[in-house]
Amino acid sequence: MSKNPTALPPWESMLKRIVWKQLGDIQNKKILDFGSGIGVTADYLGKNNDVIAIEPNEESVAARWTNNQYTQMIGSVDRLCEFADETFDFIICHNVLEYTEDRADIVREFARVLKPHGKISIVKHNRAGRVMQMIVLLNDFEKANSLLSGNDGMASKYGAIHYYEDADIENWCPELTITQTRGIRTFWDMQQNQEIHKDAGWQEKMIEIEMRVSDKKEYQDIAFFHHLILAKTN
């Protein structure tokens, strides 16, 4: 299915475009996209790279984007064992680990199939950002207090959000080191005029200012998502 980012809901389109800007220009790499969904990022990276995408949901795979060539596999962590050690230059894992109980095993498998000095891009929920959203945008003090007490959140599409800290990844797999942290979705949820979200000019201005603050810790602390880049240290 051939599409472009404007076909996505505004919040998802902006999220993808910011993540891609933060990733920079990636070319001629062997890439794994784990938990690829409908293949938006796999398709984007497939233009200039050799990409393998893994996704467990067959409906998502059936609706996947196919502007560019990439290899699609159906499955989950079970498919990672099919790859030899040190296969990939880059691994993408965006908004996946919150929804699985075997995330430590997945991260260790990532390290196994990643080449020395290879990189991993992980996008994850930030609990503090979710609390901000519940209070400012949704006026839901009950859920905000629940999150502050350490309880899980909930996503309408995927179920329970099992929050984890950025540093947990290094604890699960000491071979991996966080080399860069950036915030995403710091401001745009605070704009409650949903119609303006659809305006292309507004989106460009929002993406620009999100990028300006994404590497500043004080803004990362309240961002809805964190984008982590990890490197394999050996």
Largest beta-sheet details = 7 strands, mixed
Radius of gyration: 17 Å
Query: Given the structure, what is the number of helices?
Result: 9
Inertia-based shape: globular
Structural class: alpha/beta
CATH class: Alpha Beta
State the fourth-level CATH superfamily. Answer: Vaccinia Virus protein VP39
| Span between termini | 39 Å
Would you identify the CATH architecture? 3-Layer(aba) Sandwich
Total domains: 1
Number of E-type strands: 9
Q: Please state roughly what percent of the residues sit in beta strands, choosing from under 5%, 5-15%, 15-25%, 25-35%, 35-45% or over 45%.
A: 15-25%
The whole-number mean of residue pLDDT values reads 93
Task: List low-confidence stretches.
Answer: none
Order of helices and strands: HEHEHEEHEHHEEHEHHE
Instruction: Provide the CATH topology.
Output: Rossmann fold
Tell me the strand order in the biggest sheet: 3-2-1-4-5-9-8
Helix content: 25-40%
